[in-house]
Specification:
Length: 391
């Protein structure tokens, strides 16, 4: 198959639309559904991300994409009891490593992952397919599917769920093209390999970056490689916990990603874990309610006449002081940035979210200020010398 006609492009008025190869055949098979233009953008970007994560860590990897940027990315480390609960998988008896990777990728920012496109580094197994089946999602791409897993996925959306199989051995042309306004752009593909060598130039007083942090920094940097710039990624425990994408200002990007990381941690607090939802409320509505409860608009779910539709027992207000006290317990977070930090204010904001390890290109005229701010908090920061813009 050299080309595949699509229903429309980014929007319904953009017709005709198709994907095609100038040379050879498409490296994919559509096993179910009719993926659209944005679906394929998410699928191909996500596949590159998880393929690199698997190569870098040796672990199964998954990512949850929305609008051509990841909402979450993770490797297949086991879930503890708390993470299983906040990811709504505590009712599942056994999760495969690949299923753990997807639960983490989906669970990092469940609000953003609603209606995601999933990419898996390994053959989709039954355990992973069962998790996917119960989430609101547009589709999945993987190098293969176990027969029973494929049958499970084909039941989604009344048989219209997009299931794509990609040739894991496919290698694209080293020169890539993109057309904008009738004008063709050409560049070499970003074939940069992200490994420990990128973290060798530690410029802070604290030179210690343990193995676990190096894995998290690799996850952050590989995630940034496929995230719309400007982008910043917080990572901890084998997964991205906060991704800021497409911001014109780096400090706004750091704040956005930091707020998402904070929300991930606040969801693990006793106050949130103790919320008693009414039996009829679904996972998406629980996610929305938790997001409001831990935010500044908490009265939207605690107002009289409203909370009764959500909770069995009215929760106490999660005060700003209580939230800050809980956030102060979040430690050893890793942070990656796709370009240099121009001011120390980014480090100040990162510190509030428990960041201890940083990887960024370096090269700002204010590097000394950024380094001294890291030293103030005993952070270890590596200058990679490599920018990771993606557009």
């Amino acid at each position: 198959m050299k080309e595949l006609e699509l229903k429309y492009g980014c929007n319904p008025n953009q017709k005709p639309s198709k994907i095609y190869m100038n040379e050879g055949e498409l490296p994919i098979k559509v096993l179910c559904g009719k993926p659209g233009y944005i679906n394929f953008l998410d699928a191909f970007n996500g596949w590159q991300l998880v393929k690199e994560l698997k190569k870098a860590t040796g672990l199964p990897a998954a990512t949850s994409f929305k609008h051509v940027s990841p909402a979450g990315a993770a490797v297949g480390l086991p879930l503890d009891e708390t993470l299983a609960k906040i990811y709504w998988v505590d009712d599942v008896e056994e999760l495969s490593p690949l299923a753990c990777a997807y639960a983490r990728a989906r669970g990092a920012d469940r609000m953003s992952s609603f209606g995601d496109f999933i990419s898996l580094s390994d053959v989709c197994d039954v355990s992973t397919a069962k998790l996917i089946k119960r989430e609101v999602s547009d589709g999945v791409i993987a190098p293969g599917y176990e027969p029973e897993a494929l049958e499970i996925l084909k039941q989604k959306k009344k048989g219209n769920y997009a299931v794509i199989e990609i040739d894991p051995d496919y290698e694209p042309n080293p020169i890539e093209h993109k057309e904008v306004f009738g004008i063709t752009f050409e560049q070499g593909r970003n074939e940069l390999v992200i490994d420990d060598e990128l973290l060798a130039n530690v410029v802070t007083d604290n030179k210690e970056i343990p193995k676990e942090a190096k894995i998290d920094l690799a996850i952050a940097l590989i995630t940034l490689k496929y995230t719309q710039s400007n982008s910043v990624c917080y990572a901890k425990g084998g997964q991205a916990i906060g991704i800021g994408a497409g911001q014109q200002s780096r400090i706004h990007c750091t704040r956005l990603a930091g707020q998402k990381a904070d929300n991930w941690w606040l969801r693990q607090s006793p106050k949130v874990l103790g919320l008693q939802f009414v039996d009829s409320i679904g996972r998406a509505d629980r996610d929305n309610s938790i997001d409001l409860y831990i935010g500044d608009e908490y009265m939207d779910v605690l107002a009289e006449g409203t909370w009764q539709n959500i909770f069995k027992v009215k929760p106490e207000v999660f005060t700003r002081e209580e939230k800050r006290a809980w956030l102060d317990k979040m430690t050893d977070v890793s942070l990656g940035s796709d370009a240099f930090f121009p001011f120390g204010d980014n480090i100040e904001r990162a510190h509030k979210s428990g960041v201890k390890y940083i990887a960024q290109p370096g090269g700002s005229v204010r590097d000394d200020n950024v380094i001294s701010t890291c030293n103030k908090y005993n952070m270890a920061m590596a200058f990679t010398g490599i920018r990771l813009f993606h557009h």
